[in-house]
Structure formats: C-alpha cells, structure tokens
Please model this.
Amino acid sequence: MVQNPARRTALVDAAVEVLARDGARGLTFRAVDAEAGVPKGTASNYFANRDDLIRQTGRRIHERIAPDPAEVEQVMRAAPSRALVAELMAWVNRRVTAERTGYLAMLELRLEATRRPELQAELTATVRETMEADARFHLDSGLPGDRTAVQLLQLAMTGLMLEQLTLPGVVPAEHTAALIAALVDRVTADQAKPSAPTP
Model:
C-alpha cells in the first residue's frame, strides 16, 4: 500500500491529542482514526502495531515541542547575561503553555515508559541528546552558568512544567516569572562572584 506522508502526519498528530487526553491506555488505532476523522482501519494501515504507533508519536511530540530556530535567533540577539538566561527559561515556560497538548502527551509517554523497557531506552536517549544539545548551546553562547548550572536549570524547569500541567494551582501563574528569575540568579550566582585571588 502506498502511504500518504501528509495523512501519516495527521494520524500521528491525532495520536498526540489522544495520548494527552486519554492517556496511554486510550491510545488505540480506533481512537486515532476517530480523532483524525478517517475511516476505521486507516491507522492500522500506517503503523505496524501499537508499539510502532507509540514510538512514532514520541518522535512527533519532540518535533512539535522543539523551538523554532528563527525564534531562537531573535532571542539570542541580546548580549549574554543572567537576564537573558531568565528570558530563555521564561520562553521555555511559555512554550509549555502554547504546546500544552504536546507536553501532556510527553508526560504520558514517560509514565508508559516505566512499563515498556524499549520505550524507556528510546526516550532516555532522546531526552539525553536534547539536554546535551541545550547545554552545548548555553555554553557556546557564553551565557552565565557552567554545565552543572545548566543541568540544574533543566531539571528545575521540568519540575515547574510538571506542576503547571498537572496541578496549576501549586505555582500561581503570576508568581512564575519571579520564581524563574530567582532560580536563574541562584543557580548562576557563582558565575557572578569574583575569582578568589591566587596566593
């Protein structure tokens, strides 16, 4: 059967919606067909099995939540500073709001990965690669903070994302900007201190 790439993308996008709304158990070929508005049996013609559907859904989620290179270029026109780091973290936080479905689906996939070793291995590799790329970008751009600081920022932002998506009342939206600014100040504080004199 000749497959239509546009239809495949539409099916995977529908799978993201189903995953975010109904969780991994709700991610079935029938549910994807219904979400995409296509005849029953369509999804089963595009994916070898449910594991294949889950894997391709994970890849699509990462495509959807990846930053737009043009937006990155625009933001990075400012001089490297702690204020710019805070703006980058706030920008990441805004993307969570803008692509809420994608991030919710990713959380569902992470939970499913605890029960599927192959999925866990694939997600681990993907997230490690993303984190390493982010660290290289941060360091190569001359932004304040060493590799440890970057990792702390990444982990803290993941925690904030989790709270906002699952229990938004824990961290009120009006407090988020101040918390992010404080996070950046404290995590990169060592970078602002003068070096100790050499004896």
In short: The mean pLDDT is 91.
